[in-house]
Design a protein that fits this description.
The protein is mainly beta. The chain has helices spanning 86-90, 249-254; strands spanning 2-8, 11-19, 38-46, 51-57, 62-69, 72-73, 78-79, 96-101, 111-119, 125-130, 139-143, 150-156, 162-170, 174-182, 192-193, 196-201, 210-217, 223-229, 242-246. The mean pLDDT is 90.
Length: 256
Amino acid sequence: MMADLVQNGGRPAGVRDAVIGDIAGIGGRRLAGRDADAESITLLDGTLARGTVLISFERNHRIGRFPVSDRGLEAPTGYLKMPSDIRRVVGFNKGIEAVGVLRGGPLGGSVIAFAEEGFGDKRYHTGWIWPGGFGGEPQMLGLTNIGDFAVTDVASLPDGSLIVLERKFRWLEGVRMRLRLVRGVLVKPGTLLEGETLIEADLGSEIDNMEGLALSRDQRGQTIITLISDNNYNSMLQRNLLLQFALGPEATAKVR
């Protein structure tokens, strides 16, 4: 889906000019079944009006490069090289849930991705980084596991620091979400990242199954964090929510 977000006094108030359609595969064929389980999207280059996005898929694990034009989202022009052991590491339905592009720092332009629940032997979250961008070779890194949350998305600040979105669901606890901040100077192959918790919330707050994350700047130069939930086509129990937060000055200072 593509749409313009309507703002009212700096707050999200609705969407307009929405367009929705299928994601195409190589040659324009319609994706179906295990090929169609898209989980994350991020801008690789250009703009959302004319540029290129990366979309990650689980089950049939891959990350595709999709042009965006005045015709909308077009068929992919290629796929990143996947780690050779990805099926062993992440299993069938816990694949690459989060994908981002480092916007600065020593490895600026590199692609980074995390599995939803691909815990390594030492119970950390498994991730990969493609130094140099789309044509790079995947190299493993990790994120500490705090409380068995699942990683659902990641996005980069201009200096290469990361905001990581996590979600946890248990029948007796309900759903929880967490945002972590990881300094960009620490992001490199072979490292185990930890970061600092920015916010953690449960159903006592207005959250749901939060799975999508994006970062932007408002007219005052503040970093705006936008989150969206996935209701799994289950409108009886879950909601589609769009939330926005401003990154506070204390957190901003920590990434400088």
